[in-house]
Amino acid sequence: MANKYFVIDFDSTFTKVEAFDVLADISLHGHPELAARKKQIEEITRRGMDGSISFRESLEQRLALLPINRIHLGKLVSQLKEKVSESFKRNRDFFTTHADSIYIISNGFREFIEPVVTAYGVKPANILANEFVFDDHDNVKGFDTTNPLSSNNGKSERLKSLNLPGDIYVIGDGYTDYEIKRAGLANKFFAFTENVEREQVLSKADHVAPSLDEFLYLNKLNTAISYPKNRISVLLLENVHPVAISWMKSEGFSVESYPAGLNEAELCEKVKNVSVLGIRSKTQVTSKVLDSANRLMAIGAFCIGTNQIDLAEATRKGIAVFNAPFSNTRSVVELAIGEIIVLLRNIPDKSQHMHQGKWDKSARGSYEIRGKRLGIVGYGNIGAQLSVIAENLGMKVYYYDREEKLALGNATKCRSLDELLAAADVVTLHVDGRDSNTNLIGHAQFNKMKPGVIFLNLSRGHVVDIQALRENILSGKVAGCAVDVFPDEPIDNHEEFVSPLRGLPNTLLTPHIGGSTAEAQENIGMFVPGKLMDYINTGSTSNSVNFPNLTLPTLENAHRLIHIHNNVPGILARINQVLANHGINIVGQYLKTNEWIGYVITDINKEYDKEVIKELRAIEHTIKFRVLY
Ligand code: NAI
User: Fold this and answer.
1) Which one of 121, 126, 168, 328 is CB 3.0 to 4.6 Å from 186, fit for a cystine?
2) Pocket of ligand 1, candidates 329, 377, 419, 431: which has the most ligand atoms within 8 Å of its Cβ, to mutate?
3) Residues 307 and 344 placed together within one structural domain of the fold
4) Are the C-beta atoms of 395 and 409 separated by less than 8 Å?
5) pTM value?
6) Do residue 195 and residue 237 come from a single domain?
7) Per-residue pLDDT tens digits for 357-385
8) What CA–CA distance (Å, rounded) separates 106 from 12?
9) What pLDDT is stored for residue 227 in this prediction?
10) Which of 406, 415, 432 to mutate to test the pocket of ligand 1 (most atoms within 8 A of CB)?
11) What CATH number is attached to the domain comprising 380?
């Protein structure tokens, strides 16, 4: 097989930035003409590119505008080291494994390129770049004009002089990189678009490489990841937080995002080649949508609920679903605290009276929360956090949960709901929405509460018998109440809110916004992509809604085989039989099942026969199979 050489550009390819721009900022830092000179440099660069001046002239003119000293170069190197392209960072292995065949070519300068690329294992002798000439005070006074890289067509000339005996693949973002191929010196030119895209360059490329992963994949050199992330297409709907979009893009995925949701027909069309789908609460992921989703690996619900997804069908198809169950816990807790304070002071009525011009200054029926008994029904994420904060504000906390839950702080555990209802001055519901919780609080439960109780529901609408609540407010048994969730909620902001609770005294009604804060949205935007990428990169399913939860160690020096199958007996044995038949050493193995599927992760030694993969895929009841390198 012919030798292969990889010739890689530096500016905007190896690093995300153009070193010259950064150098201008550093060397002109605090200079009164900084902006003006940068503009001039831009203009000179443009004239160099369009051919109205030669490359040599452009270099001379640009350098004349910059008072560069060695000290500046030191600073430049530190900044460039921070700005290495993401896909280069994650493919360090490539540089060390192929050090003899990798060349860095640049019209930039060795003085700042060498420290950056040698840190990745590139050999100093394989760096083809210009060199500065310094005066006695370490100021740059010019450059080595005998170096072909300081002239037009320099890259081709320089490469030609090396006479490399084999195939040459060039990867870069600029026209000068393409010129190497045009000069007949390279077999293929890959346009690198991770940092910049230039139309003129794209049209000349043999391949477009949105990341180094793609370049390695096309050349069968990939080791860091099994499949280039740019080939994994991610569709994000319903205006998910920008932090999610930019994070997934920076990880190298091909991300498409839409501000609105899509209806079933639109989604069926759009989802065809999508590997990861991100939605919020409005998009219905029906079995029909899932049928159209040929490549779907995972769904991220950028919200709490997952009712909008046909989970059973997703599971049957081996599609992992993730959500963000705890991202808005704090927001709900803060609202509950605020409401308790406001209701104990009768503020809803007082505020309304003021708007009507009524001045009712009196302490009657107004209380501090300090020393009051707070009864928390449902001591999960929200209930437990509320417990801690309420106690810090001086409340005495009682709680009841149907499951065994450890008391936080000095909270008192109640053995029954009735016990809690009898004790509490304030009753607040934080149970989940399981069917059996329908009308958990009705007439019988209100009867058990203290007269003048304050009542809050920020959990789920069907948990409270609304008619019973209305009657107890009107009778004065409930002295104040806050409700954020309702059995019937309008579908959108245009529909009228209809409820027997409208117009009642000391009653705070809010449109299901307990968890709706900027912070919660940002938390969700960070949490869900983290789970999705963990799943794609490592196979980890921790917190998945429908997959058996497995948290996996990071993969070191092994291949990871990820096998999803219908939960029938004997599959693990079949997998291990195949591996044994091929004499493969298992480094680690993890299995978890749920009602529907089995999830087996097997880490094996680096060397294996490709036939194994075929046989594993062919095992009966296999739903999905993939390999991580
Ligand atoms: P979680 O699942 O962590 O906690 C729920 C707790 O309630 C569990 O400990 C469970 O054992 C307990 N529970 C269930 N039924 C019970 C019963 N009948 N009696 C006593 N305990 C019972 O849930 P998390 O995250 O704390 O959320 C609580 C509720 O808040 C959920 O219904 C959720 O949908 C709702 N929520 C509302 C938001 C809003 O915008 N208003 C935002 C976020 C959550």
Assistant:
1) 168
2) 431
3) no
4) no
5) 0.72
6) no
7) 999 999 999 999 999 999 999 999 999 99
8) 11
9) 72
10) 432
11) 3.40.50.720
| Rounded Cα–Cα distance for residues 551 and 561 (Å) | 15
Residues 441 and 566 in one domain: no
Distance from Cα 20 to the centre of ligand 1, integer Å: 56
Q: Are 164 and 44 in a shared domain?
A: yes
Contacts of 173 (CB under 8 A, 6+ apart): 9, 11, 12, 13, 191, 192, 193, 195, 196, 197, 198, 201
* Whether residue 58 is found in the same domain as residue 141: yes
Q: Which of 501, 516, 531 lies at the terminal end of a domain, its last residue?
A: 516
Phi, psi at residue 274, to the nearest 5°?
-85, 135
Distance CA 397, CA 413 (A): 9
Contact (Cβ atoms closer than 8 angstroms) between residue 313 and residue 287? yes
Q: Quick check: is 535 in a domain?
A: no
Residue 539: inside a domain: no
- 289 and 349 assigned to the same domain: no
Q: Is 530 among the domain residues?
A: no
Cβ density class 244-260: b for 16+ within 10 Å, e for less? bbebbeebbbbbebeee
Q: Please list every protein residue whose CB sits less than 6 Å from any atom of ligand 1.
A: 304, 325, 328-329, 332, 377-383, 400-403, 430-433, 437, 440, 458-460, 484-485, 512, 514-515
Please state, in angstroms and rounded to a whole number, the distance separating the CA atoms of residues 319 and 573: 23
Which of the pair, 230 or 403, is modelled with greater confidence? 403
CATH number, domain at 181?
3.40.50.1000
Residues 185-195 have a mean pLDDT of 94
Considering the domain architecture, whether residues 240 and 205 belong to the same structural domain is answered as no
Residues with a known catalytic role: 460, 489, 512
Contacts (Cβ under 8 Å, ≥6 apart) of 29? none
Rounded alpha-carbon distances, angstroms, from residue 73 to 50, 124, 243, 272, 376 = 29, 18, 33, 50, 62
Give 324-354 pLDDT, tens digit per residue.
988 999 999 999 999 999 999 999 999 999 9
Atom of ligand 1 nearest to the CA of 326: 25
Q: Tell me which residue range forms the domain holding 483.
A: 329-516
Is the separation of the CB atoms in 267 and 287 below 8 Å? no
If asked whether residues 554 and 441 sit together in one domain, one would say: no
pLDDT digits (tens, 9 = 90+) for 203-237: 999 999 988 988 998 888 866 556 788 889 999 99
CATH number at 595 reads 3.30.70.260
Residue nearest to atom 42 of ligand 1 (CA): 515
Domain boundary among 218, 251, 271: 218
User: What is the Å distance from ligand 1's center to 109 Cα?
Assistant: 61
Task: Specify the pLDDT at position 52.
Answer: 87
Residue 303 Cα to ligand 1 middle (Å): 15
Q: How many domains does the chain have?
A: 4
Closest-CA residue, ligand 1 atom 32, reads 432
185: number of CA atoms within 13 Å, CB side?
A: 21
Query: What's the CA-to-centroid distance between 380 and ligand 1, angstroms?
Result: 6
- Does residue 248 lie within any of the structural domains? yes
Residue with CA at minimum distance from ligand 1 atom 35: 459
